[in-house]
Amino acid sequence: MRATLLHLLAITARPLVRRSPVHPPQRVLVIKPDHLGDLLLATPALTALRAALPTAHITALVGPWAASMWAQMREIDTLETLPFPGFNRDAPKPLPWEPYILLCQTARRLRQQAYDAALILRDDHWWGAALALLAGIPQRIGFAHPLCTSLLSVALPYQPRQHVTQQALDIVAALTNTLPTATALRYTPTDAARTWAIAWTQQHLKPDEHLIIIHPGTGGPTKHWLREHWSRLIQELCQPGRRILLTGSPAETAELTAIAASSPAELLMSSNDLTIDRLAALFAHARLVIGVDSGPLHIAVSQGVPTIHLFGPSDPLRFGPWGDPARHRVLSAGLPCSPCGVFATCPRATNPPECMAAITPEQVLAGVEALLGK
């Protein structure tokens, strides 16, 4: 029913497109409703977009929950925030008509800004595609997802398991008629954060110690690894010349404390004093970062530190580390039902989720020793 309604919307709204496309486009709107890690995975596309359109005015429309990730991107001229429906993890469920009121209000505002092109950097984001159409933007580029195709002017072939970074690069290529060079993820900590990280390492590490950071938290309950597995891994990792640090957000302090309490080794822990900026700066001092599929693990990749990512319900082909496979490893149990893409509860009702429980500490330890050996 939704697909039918969106198709009817596409037909009735096409007269709202006010003018022919401009080549090259001078005003470009980038729509990205996702969270921190997803925005970081799109930074190579922003780099490619600016390189291809050096004089264009580029506006990014993102959720307020992730704006900090692009706040320092020089490729963006204007950063606007919008509470995209369905993406705020802490907000109460909206009334059925509220997302459509927001859609119409935002489209009316965007029409006044006269954009030449809109890039929908999430392949299934029909709401963003509808927003670009109602705003009268002549070039609307995204993927031929069943809910999006009729709303777009250019619908690229939809490959559900293509890496999201490559998807974003392909959209830029479609707009600019270029072949963007695949660049690294980019997040630059502030000078204040770097100064803090230097002071932290000087206070907590001996000159001959290597720092291994474990970041166990993530936004989806089914993506968590077992507490006893973390404890077993930490026990094996603790060797002379190594210091283990647990990191997380203030909301994850209780879980970090529980992991530390169940671990026989003496650990460092940091959460209440951490910001994304400080976390990135601290990652740069690590010899290795270990965690589950999460935004902070992608931040670690952006800082050039080797990483190990534990994947269960999420798809590493789409959301795996964007970097050298020799330095960034994905570990999974390889169950037939994985990846399922369900992050709230296991569809097979296993608790803890079998796909995460089946990843053994021994597997992770083998990956650790291989990377540290290099």
Automatic annotation (TrEMBL):
GO terms for biological process: lipopolysaccharide core region biosynthetic process. SUPFAM superfamilies: UDP-Glycosyltransferase/glycogen phosphorylase (SSF53756). The keyword Transferase applies. One of its GO terms (cellular component) is cytosol. Keywords: Glycosyltransferase, Transferase. The keyword GTP-binding does not apply. InterPro entries: Glyco_trans_9, LPS_LOS_Heptosyltrfase. It comes from the Bacteria. Gene3D superfamilies: Glycogen Phosphorylase B. GO terms for molecular function: ADP-heptose-lipopolysaccharide heptosyltransferase activity. This is Glycosyl transferase family 9. It comes from Chloroflexus aurantiacus (strain ATCC 29366 / DSM 635 / J-10-fl). The lineage of its organism: Bacteria, Bacillati, Chloroflexota, Chloroflexia, Chloroflexales.
